[in-house]
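Predict the assembly for these two chains.
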Amino acid sequence: MKHSQLKEIIKKKASKTEFAIVTNLENGLSEIYEPKKSLSKDFDTHKDQIENFFKSKKNGVIENTEIFVETYIRPTKVIIVGAVHIAQYLVDFARSLNFEILIIDPRGYFATEQRFPNLKIINKWPDEAFEEIETNENTALIALTHDPKIDDPAIKHALNKNFFYIGALGSKKTHENRCIRLRQTGFNEKQINSIHGPIGIKLGGKSAPEIALSIIAQLVEVTYKK
Amino acid sequence: MKNSFDEKILEEANDWIEANQKVVLATVIQTWGSSPRQVGSRMIVNEKGDFSGSVSGGCVESAVVRECMGLIKDNKPCKKIEFKVSNENAWEVGLACGGEIAVYLEQIT
């Protein structure tokens, strides 16, 4: 592979586009495949098979050929509401796992660049923040403020948009009260039960990094069930 | 369905190259039976034998490092190697899990 191509692949990954790398294992030539983009002659004869790999998001060698296909899919978007202590550890775990992270917190003294370097922080109330974020059923929400004023609007948005994961920090009692509020605003039991609250798998830890670990573990588990 | 977890090996390869190192990229392209790393798993090796990432659970990495260094020394663009239980490499490094893997090595030029 040429260094220029490696750089192009890295750029594509950073721009969150979906693509595949196709490599001829005999002569070492490789190319980037994208839907609706033409391939060179060498690879074009296998276009259908390459497209199949791309569509099923699989890696592998095309049968009876020496062509290897590696697909790259868009990272899962994780929205953290609350730029709190736990979020600082969550960001580190989420980065190693290649989640795309953004933080929403209207409280300026929490959501600072100094506490969260190189991260997209939206310093607005959730309703306003969601106007500028594209969300769908491939998005996850981690609500950490346990303040209904901030968490509830975010959870409502996530329920309406069918996020694949919604987790909310808070004790059992806090969560019960949250469920009551959501019920009153018209959400059904199925929707309410889909919220992971209290958030995280049971590890037993109480410190901020331990709670972050239990949350991220649950998120990975749910990602595989998607 | 494949998830988007990614180990950032390509990014690291780029850092190494920009630090004037010669880099070979090793990618798991096929697996048979039980193998520790899935297809698409990667490691990188430089001319000194420093490496990052993995293609197995530590079973064949040393052999891959040797092969990669050989590729740099002979200035060859690419090579495919297979590790099987019946492979003579396996007696030396071996896949304890009894699986088989094919690894593709390519020099970044």
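The longest strand of chain A covers residues 19-24. Residues 57 and 136 of chain A are 19 Å apart (CA to CA).
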